[in-house]
Design a protein that fits this description.
Elements: H1 21-32, H2 34-48, H3 53-57, H4 66-72, H5 78-89, E1 104-112, E2 115-121, H6 123-143, E3 151-155, E4 162-163, E5 169-171, H7 173-178, H8 181-184, H9 198-201, H10 206-219, E6 224-231, H11 232-255, H12 265-272, H13 279-289, H14 297-301, E7 307-311, H15 320-327, E8 332-333, E9 336-338, E10 343-346, E11 359-361, E12 367-372, E13 390-391, E14 400-406, E15 414-426, E16 429-437, H16 451-462, E17 470-480, E18 487-496, H17 505-518, H18 521-530, E19 537-541, H19 545-555, H20 572-580, E20 582-587
Parallel strand pairs: 1-5, 3-6, 6-7, 7-8, 18-19
Antiparallel strand pairs: 1-2, 4-5, 9-10, 10-11, 11-16, 12-13, 12-14, 14-15, 15-16, 17-18, 19-20
Helix pairs in contact: 1-6, 10-11, 11-13, 11-15, 16-17
Bound molecules: adenosine monophosphate.
Residues 108-110, 173, 311, 313-314, 334, 337-340, 416, 418, 434, 437 line the site of adenosine monophosphate (AMP).
Length: 600
């Protein structure tokens, strides 16, 4: 790849390593021929799936050309595809959307009717995902040499899986990947050596998994060259785990005996091979962790860390300051942009600052189209007359678009829900800044709560207030990530008819729980299984607070006629205004209900 003058100062291009020449060449070929690769991918998808019920419904007659495809096939959302997905989930194995057998469902962190969306996938998609993974180290090695001389401390986890009524497995895409033969029987690659044993990654008990991964990371601390997790929230959860468990970890290291809470026999067996009494290391960790000072804890414990490998774009940007604090300002590298529907692409300048990260969608991963996105001039899409969407090679720099994908697994013109801005091109392939996901109000970890879910939660909780003649007159919310795990804060302005009989703390705490019970399954899973979201909090504010909020917005130029109370706030002066008016705070007393089984 060519040296680029817009790289951040940390980024210095190193001569490509022989081993990686083929992968880098592949990136060049794909990105130089964006449009022809896209035409080929679409033709492959359409000919592979020509006999499917879905494509036949639109009379493509086996044609594979773009124009016919664009004029006949509707642009759809998950809800539009529900009938087909439901049939597959219930065991109809006829070629409904894909001619290849659906091997499993990938459960998205995006939800529909409170449940994770089910994304059908086929066996060969795993190879396509694997191909994208195989490009990451070659690109990184252009910027950070010597990654084959040490290990990666990555906190990686599997999550619970379920079976659909028709017997297909439904699980998150990373769980599917870590449990695949591609991952478990991967050949030795000095660039991909992890401190975490596979046994720990594959353990579905999140405490045992995290404990073992942290312990192994501590035992191999001097070999660690990079520290990472998929998302920033995951890495911060690991630091919090260390804060809570370092004494036991120190004990294990000093005595050479593993915490009895680790009961998984395969973990015990592999840890036994590396855990020996080491008082020097135990003393070192004791000294680093014992005080109040956790500033730069990552480079203090893992002094050879060159960068953090975590996604800090999109909703995760809220964690950048905290990661800076714990890492003493180590570079934060966002390497990949992917989803359950399709793995999209990678960051070709992985050492750029988070605010400047752009992802290059790889044209071989699927067929990509784009709906121009202008918040002031939204496009209405009708199923009957599909709009002419913009192709990957025809996007304009500076404009925002909503991503639409067609995949080998049978999704056709599917709206992913991500809004991207084109920042430039690598060869003829556009590069994108991730702007946001549509309709997400609150997010702490992989949870995504939209406005209607929050509204429903508030309505359900308000029912408890009726017997106290109390109503919620206004509310807003805030994703509080000042402590880990972060949690939802809901500000309530209450009208209490009889101030001598206000709802008690007990009642308001129950309101918190009722709200949590109303949240979607991903939120509840984060609360219950992953402990990555803390108990929901209600902050009751003084009467008149929301009027003050309106005055503030109007003083900053909002129109009085069109003013609506924001349902989520993040702007510091507004959060400070709300916090200055708090009368009482209440927390959910217990975790909400969650099981891996789907509710419907
Ligand atoms: P899921 O389907 O649960 O795997 O979630 C996929 C979604 O996560 C994407 O559609 C994006 O909204 C978000 N996402 C994935 N990768 C990134 C990234 N690198 N930066 C920001 N958001 C991302």
């Amino acid at each position: 790849m060519a040296v680029d003058s817009s790289l951040s100062p940390e980024a210095v291009i190193h001569p490509p390593n022989e081993k990686f020449a083929k992968a880098l060449q592949f990136i060049e070929e794909m990105t130089k021929n964006t449009d022809s690769v896209q035409a080929r991918v679409l033709a492959e998808i359409l000919s592979q799936n020509a006999e499917t019920e879905y494509l036949q419904r639109f009379d493509l007659g086996g044609a594979t050309d773009r124009d016919l495809f664009k004029s006949r096939i509707p642009v759809v959302t998950y809800e539009d595809l529900q009938p087909e997905i439901q049939r597959i989930a219930c065991g109809d194995f006829s070629p409904i959307i894909c001619s290849h057998p659906i091997s499993e469902f990938l459960t998205s962190s995006g939800t529909s009717a409170g449940e994770r969306k089910l994304m059908p996938t086929i066996k060969e998609e795993m190879d396509r995902r694997q191909l994208l993974y195989s490009l990451l180290n070659p690109v990184m090695s252009l910027y950070v040499p010597g990654l084959d001389k040490g290990k990666g401390l990555y906190f990686l986890f599997v999550k619970a899986e379920a079976k659909t009524p028709g017997g297909l497995v439904a699980r998150p895409v990373l769980t599917s990947y870590y449990k695949s033969d591609q991952f478990k029987t991967r050949p030795y690659d000095p660039y991909n050596v992890y401190t975490s044993p596979d046994e720990a990654i594959l353990c579905c008990d999140s405490f045992q998994s995290m404990y073992t991964q942290m312990l192994c990371g501590l035992l191999m601390r001097e070999e660690v060259l990079r520290v990472g997790a998929v998302f920033a929230s995951g890495l911060l959860r690991a630091i919090r785990f260390l804060q809570l468990n370092w004494r036991q970890l120190v004990h294990d290291i000093s005595t050479g005996s593993l915490n009895p809470r680790i009961t998984d026999s395969s973990i015990r067996e592999c840890v036994a091979k590396i855990l020996k009494p080491n008082t020097d290391l135990a003393d070192f960790i004791f000294n680093e962790c014992q005080g109040e000072n956790w500033d730069s804890i990552i480079p203090r414990i893992w002094p050879n860390t060159k960068y953090l490998d975590v996604i800090v774009t999109g909703a995760m940007a809220q964690y950048i300051p905290l990661l800076d604090f714990y890492s003493g300002g180590l570079p934060q590298s966002c390497t990949m942009y992917a989803s359950s529907e399709c793995y999209f692409g990678l960051n070709l300048k992985p050492m750029t600052k988070p605010s400047q990260v752009s992802y290059t969608i790889m044209p071989n991963m699927g067929y990509f189209e784009f709906i121009p996105h202008d918040p002031n001039n939204p496009i209405t899409l009708s199923r009957d007359s599909p709009p002419r969407l913009v192709d990957l090679a025809d996007l304009e720099v500076g404009k925002e678009y909503e991503l639409v994908v067609s995949t080998y697994s049978g999704l056709c013109r599917y709206r992913v829900g991500d809004i991207l801005r084109v920042t430039g091109f690598h060869n003829s392939a556009p590069q994108f800044k991730f702007i946001r996901r549509k309709n997400v109000l609150l997010s702490i970890d992989s949870d995504k709560t939209d406005e209607s879910e929050l509204q429903k939660a508030v309505e359900n909780a308000s029912v408890l207030l009726r017997q106290y003649d109390t109503t919620v007159v206004e509310y807003t919310s805030y994703a509080d990530t000042s402590s880990i795990p972060g949690h939802y804060v809901i500000y309530w302005e209450l009208l209490i008819k009889d101030p001598t009989k206000p709802p008690s703390d007990d009642v308001l705490a129950k309101c918190c729980l009722v709200m949590e019970e109303a949240m979607n399954t991903v939120y509840r899973q984060c609360r219950v299984a992953d402990n990555s979201v803390g108990p929901l909090e209600i902050r009751v504010v003084k009467m008149g607070t929301f009027e003050e909020l309106m005055d503030y917005a109007i003083s900053r130029g909002a129109s009085i006629n069109q003013y609506k109370a924001p349902r989520c706030v993040s702007f510091t002066p507004i959060v400070e205004l709300l916090n200055a008016r708090v009368l009482s705070v209440h927390f959910s007393p217990v975790a909400p209900q969650w099981t891996p089984e789907r509710r419907i």
